[in-house]
Please model this.
Amino acid sequence: MSPSTTQLIIEVCYLVATALFILSLKWLSSPASARHGVLAGEIGAALAVVTTFFHPELVQYKWILIALLIGTMIGIPLGMVHMTAVPQRTAMSHAFGALAAATIGIAEYYVRTPHLTKFGMAEIALEVIIGSLSLTGSLIAAGKLQEVLPQRPITYKGQNLVSLSVLAAALVLAVILVLHPGYIHLFPVMVIVSLIFGVLLVTPIGGADMPTVISLLNSYVGLSAALLGFVLNSKVLVVAGALDGSSGFILSVIMCKAMNRSFTNVMFGAFGQLQVSAAGAKEDRIVRGASAEEAAAILGAANSVVVIPGYGMAVAQAQHKVRELFDLLRKRGVDVKFAIHPVAGRMPGHMNVLLAEADVPYDRLIDMDTANSEMPQTDVALIIGANDVTNPAAKTDQGSPIYGMPIIEADKARTAMVIKRSLNPGFAGIDNGLYYMDKTLMLFGDAKAFVGDIVRELAGGSH
Ligand code: NAP
Model:
């Protein structure tokens, strides 16, 4: 085959891979087509990697194959983690992506010096800074989520000034290197300063804000990969990096909007420390508890039930029991729907994935706005391990950290039933006034065990 034909085939394969990446993102935006989206992304990535093997400049395969083997050995176990560990797994994937981007940029610097142009140096410097800070930032995020590092925001006086000075130092070093690419001794200093900045960037952020931070780091890694694409003159890398960078950024914006928080609040707000509720100390207030038997009787007699799942359902892995409850209630003619808050759980789509895993039909899932319009006609709002996403303080308490966050208005249903283990707060660290309302029944216990008890009661009662 002539070199020009080989080149043409390579370009066409890259074009197909690029199209598959775009289709993947498109399909991933709906639960019904999400599986196709994953497959398209996988085929696109595999095609891009295999095509790269046929580059005429490639003469040595040994090191590539060793790297491929090591990557596979790390990747397979990483892909098999439990659903609740997906946020930290994702952070680890970003750390590896950032490591790859940073090290290739570093290698390119040493290979090309002293023939580097100023423009080439600027590309490499920016790419290596973003890659390095994303590497350490992602590792800290993964550590916080895995709880090997303290989850609470670690803050001290003058922190933002220190962090910004470190970033400024990295940028100044980059500018000096652009002006004098041959100052080889400055390059490792710039890399180390950038690595330190990644640590300083993420340590002051609370563990609970990590999903948003991860999505932002995702966008940084994408940006770094796109820049690397320019350095290596690889169109497929430019497009894949740009898609990664922009989708990560859009996701962060969606998450911030759904929490009614700004980027600056997430990045510098040290959110997630325990707050005292403006509604008064919780010991002064009375809650009404109920047993599984009572809950089963109320649910069985209802016409309409809206289930509001949250992080606790994920922790308890209660989704299969919830599906059994759904089946039993439907058999009795109860209209059961699932109201999905955009930031319920700890990652976007968390509840959708869990309910899909338990084969809950998609058409039973309703979004927050639909749920709120139906809530006043709903007999029972059954809250399973959700807290913040139903907290009326978001609408009424101006001093609350979640004030302005849209919520599912479970307090508007005729009866609210809440399954959780205690009166402890959730992610935002604030008390929930819903628990003290006359219409609310607290069902204290682990979500899986309690739903299981209700299922047993209902199944026993129907025989
Ligand atoms: P949440 O406010 O964190 O509340 C979860 C509740 O689940 C806790 O109050 C806990 O109470 C209960 N729970 C924990 N384990 C349980 C178990 N085994 N059985 C029963 N209950 C259990 O969760 P949410 O209502 O889903 O709200 C999500 C929060 O995360 C929001 O504030 C959102 O802004 C934030 N967030 C979400 C995302 C995202 O992408 N989804 C990203 C970043 C932040 P007990 O300890 O009393 O059981």
About this structure: Confidence is low (pLDDT under 50) at residues 274-280. The radius of gyration is 26 Å. The pocket of NAP is lined by residues 208, 211-212, 255, 259, 310-312, 315-316, 343-348, 350, 385-389, 419-422, 424-428, 446-447 (CB under 6 Å).
